[in-house]
Amino acid sequence: MEKSDNLNGKKLRESRTREEGGMRKMNSMKSEKNGKIWFLKGMKHGIPIGLGYFAVSFTLGIASKKAGLSAFQAAVMSAAMMASAGQFAGIGMIAAGAGYLEMAVTTLVVNAVSANVQCPFSEGAAGCALLSQIFDGL
């Protein structure tokens, strides 16, 4: 009697395990489908900001070409700076023939101001509290 109960219990456990495995597979398929849906929704909602950045990138490209920068130099500048306002300031200073120290200080200040403005939107980012204290003191 005990052997048959054990066998039935073993079969029952095996069938439950198979069912749970199947449910896990179904849940992972659902989460993949949900992830894809959310990704597509995010892409759709990101179109307006993407178009805005697209327009700014054209403007920066035109300004950097007029200032005499190559495409590589403009790309490095774009990758190194956080704010497009800093890029515009840097490009303007390059066109005016400013010195390196003046360009560095100006772009540092413009990018730091931009970082301070962006801190409330980046939850728990390191350095935001320090940056806010510095600018509050000014």
Short description:
This protein has 138 residues and is mainly alpha-helical. It is built from five helices and no strands.
**How much helix, percentage-wise, in residues?**
over 70%
Number of strands: 0
What distance separates the N and C termini?
85 Å
Q: What oligomerization state is this entry in? A: single chain
SSE order, one letter for each helix or strand: HHHHH
- Count every helix, treating DSSP H or I runs of 4 or more residues as helices: 5
Strand percentage: under 5%
Main sheet overview: none
Quickly give the structural class: mainly alpha
Give average pLDDT, whole number.
Answer: 75
Low-confidence segments, given as residue ranges, are 1-5
Radius of gyration computed on alpha carbons: 28 Å
Gross geometry? flat
Question: How would you explain this protein's 3D organization?
Answer:
- With 138 residues, the protein is mostly helical.
- The protein has helices at 2-66, 71-80, 84-96, 100-118, 128-137.
- Helix 1 runs parallel beside helix 3, helix 3 (84-96) packs antiparallel against helix 4 (100-118) and helix 4 packs across helix 5.
- The longest helix is centred in the N-terminal third of the chain and has 65 residues, at 2-66.
- It is flat.
